[in-house]
Amino acid sequence: MKELYLMRHSKTLFNQLHRIQGASDSPLTAQGIEDAQEVGRYFKQINLNFDHAYASTQERACDTLENITKQPYKRLKGLKEWNFGVFEGQSEQLNPKDDSSRHSYGDFFVQYGGESDLQVQERMNQTLTAIMERPDHNRVLAVSHGGACFMFLQKWLSFEEIQRHVTDFHNCCILKFVYSKKGFEFIKTINVKEL
């Protein structure tokens, strides 16, 4: 059984300032760097090694991964965060209310040059399936983003199951899945700060 550890990047300046951060980027904070290093120490402590590692092409994801491990990794655009169009870099107070039927922002950002929730979900699912289909990929670490990870999670779990099993989805949260026959099964959430 193959394993995927899908991780949200560490805390950034825009996270701290409550700015909308999708296609735009900002650097990790000092706390974000320390938190990523703590994840690396946790993986060493439990002797968890990865055959392959991947990160979104965005700086915050790459920097998170580089603070966790020194192993080589590949950058993939398919793991990027949701594009929020003209809302990029603006206050999070401008975010719309969730579409109650889809439990996300739905199509709201499309009219402003961004992506829909389902476009993000499809991109993430295609990218992660392609990664896990590779024959020598048995245990993979992939660093992505909050919105993108959440939409991927909604592909494989109902919203009610997410509410039950993923109670705290903060920076550096890790979602463990097993993969077989082109499908992902959610196993658990790992929050290193809580261990």
In the CATH hierarchy, the architecture is 3-Layer(aba) Sandwich
**Overall outline:** globular
- What is the count of distinct domains? 1
- Termini separation comes to 25 Å
Radius of gyration: 16 Å
- Our count of helices gives 6
Notable characteristics:
Rossmann fold; 195 residues; alpha/beta; 6 helices; 6-stranded mixed sheet; His_Pase_superF_clade-1; single chain; PGM_Phosphatase
Describe the structure.
With 195 residues, this protein is α/β, with parallel strands linked by helices. The protein has one domain: Rossmann fold. The protein is built from 6 helices and 6 strands; from the N terminus they run βααβαβαβααββ. The chain has helices spanning 13-17, 30-45, 59-68, 117-133, 146-156, 159-165, and strands at residues 2-8, 52-56, 74-76, 139-144, 174-180, 183-190. The mean pLDDT is 96. One of its GO terms (molecular function) is phosphatase activity.
What is this entry, summarized?
The protein has helices spanning 13-17, 30-45, 59-68, 117-133, 146-156, 159-165, and strands spanning 2-8, 52-56, 74-76, 139-144, 174-180, 183-190. It is α/β, with parallel strands linked by helices and 195 residues long. This is Phosphoglycerate mutase.
How is the secondary structure organized here?
Elements: E1 2-8, H1 13-17, H2 30-45, E2 52-56, H3 59-68, E3 74-76, H4 117-133, E4 139-144, H5 146-156, H6 159-165, E5 174-180, E6 183-190
Parallel strand pairs: 1-4, 2-3, 2-4
Antiparallel strand pairs: 1-5, 5-6
Helix pairs in contact: 2-3, 4-5
